[in-house]
């Protein structure tokens, strides 16, 4: 009986050593997992900080680009209005020049006609005068 008792104590001690070994391994695994969890949380925090910073930078860049876009659109509208104004002024000037040219041509034609008619009239009258003087002499 003593033998059985000693054997059972030995078996219990073996089991106790086995359990303590498993407990030691499990404690080590838990420590490793906790360390890895801490590292992952630190990495996650760093990543989130970087993401927030990048998002802030992108938001600022977007605002700046929007301001630039609005300014460029305003400049485009201003230039478009200026071009339209210049085009209408140029068109009015060109139409005025064309009218003046046509008026000058018409006046020149009238002048030439009047000069011709006056010259013809003068020539006829001179011929009539000469004829009448020749008849008187």
Number of structurally distinct domains: 1
What letter string, H or E per element, gives the SSE order? H
Helix content: over 70%
Largest sheet: none
Shape: rod-shaped
What does the average pLDDT come to?
A: 93
Strand content bin:
under 5%
The rounded Rg comes to: 57 Å
Secondary structure: number of strands:
0
Quickly give the structural class.
Answer: mainly alpha
Keywords:
rod-shaped; 137 residues; 1 helix; mainly alpha
Structure description:
By secondary structure, the protein is mainly alpha-helical. The protein has one domain. Helices cover 99% and strands 0% of the residues. The chain is built from 1 helix and no strands. 0% of the residues are buried.
Task: Describe how the helices and strands are arranged.
Elements lengths: L1 H135 L1
In short:
With 137 residues, this protein is mainly α.
